[in-house]
Amino acid sequence: MKNVLLGCTGSVAAIKIPEILNRLLENPDIRIKLVVTEHSKHFLPELATLANERVDIHTDQDEWTLWKTRGDPVLHIDLRKWTDIAIIAPLDANTLAKVANGFADNLLTCVLRAWDFSKPVIVAPAMNTCMWEHPVTQPQLEIINSWGFTVLPTQIKTLICGDTGAGAMASVDDILTAINTHL
Length: 183
Ligand SMILES: Cc1cc2nc3c(=O)[nH]c(=O)nc-3n(C[C@H](O)[C@H](O)[C@H](O)COP(=O)(O)O)c2cc1C
Known about the structure:
By secondary structure, the chain is α/β, with parallel strands linked by helices. The chain has a single domain, classed as Flavin prenyltransferase-like (Rossmann fold, 3-Layer(aba) Sandwich), CATH 3.40.50. Helix 4 packs across helix 7. The structure holds flavin mononucleotide. The site of flavin mononucleotide has 15 residues, from helix 4.
């Protein structure tokens, strides 16, 4: 069994999470923990229905409800230990900035801040073209790439907001190919 941590952030591309999950589950040797940010939940109205015997869902709240006293589980550390491979899809501009600069203010960024760099991380950025072309974006991508994170290229297309250009999340096929390469 391989343990896959699937992180989801507040890009509209989060609507692809059910498809990514289904494709991952085609491999019977994969277990998944889906870690969602608070804003990403907005794009996943059926979030609870995505859980099953091979998919657990974790939110920021879990981190705080699980720990009451010494000896209780520290979720972000347990998730890092559990994980064989992490994929953050979509990675939005906000979480990219936080991760690249060492911020750890929610469950997902805490997992990545406490990361064991012997384990692979794949990220699929997704953002508006102007966000993508903003001068702050590429240096942040270069930082996480220098740590060994695999940064999947964005696609050029007409985005859901109506703008046309780079910044669309890599296709689900490309995301699955990247994961399978590491597995
Ligand atoms: C409808 C909508 C779509 C959004 N799409 C994106 C997006 O594709 N990429 C992005 O970087 N931010 C996008 N945002 C902005 C993020 O949701 C916002 O920066 C949020 O604070 C991200 O929080 P998180 O990184 O904790 O998930 C969108 C916001 C809204 C309201």
